[in-house]
Description:
Number of helices: 5
Low-confidence stretches: 1-15, 124-128
Number of strands: 7
Radius of gyration: 18 Å
Strand content: 25-35%
Shape: globular
Structural class: alpha+beta
Distance between the termini: 72 Å
Amino acid sequence: MGHGTMTTPPTTTITSKTTLVFTYGTLKRGFSNHVLMQDLIKSGDASFKGVYQTLDKYPLVCGPYRVPFLLNKPGTGHRVTGELYAVSPRGLSRLDELEGITRGHYVRQTIRIAAGEKQGGDLETEQQEESYLVEAYYAHKSYEEELWERNKGRSFGAYTENEARGYVKRKDRPQHLTFLDHIRIFVSSPCD
């Protein structure tokens, strides 16, 4: 019997071809969809890079069932605090599926971030003043403006337990309606 060298299976390490994804809502630690990030980390398809903030101000609002949405309206709102992950192509595909990219729920586009005020991240060349171009999931353009109007121009800088109070998991929402149906109903209903 020979002694072979153990090799690490490709699924347990992050390859150099990763996408940096800024998460601001339910994918963050402590929230309901973080279980997907945990699965991706376990399989080697994601790694946590740290806490970051958007360089520019953006509106972060809640939609139906307290689902968080980042609106692509730079210069409006707050610098949004979130978590950064390096994600493999396979992991990115799973995130895109969760976020409904092909169904018009969210769009994945670039955003510029910098290390968060309280906790820095571990990007290799990091300094407090440096910024990084990464990707984030924004509300789809088809309903973004209506969502902003429905929130009366109010937004917040972080999706916290307070903002998440009343969040309803996808499996617990009415199943006879699509996600876009829920959004249409929400934006056409009177504000709280």
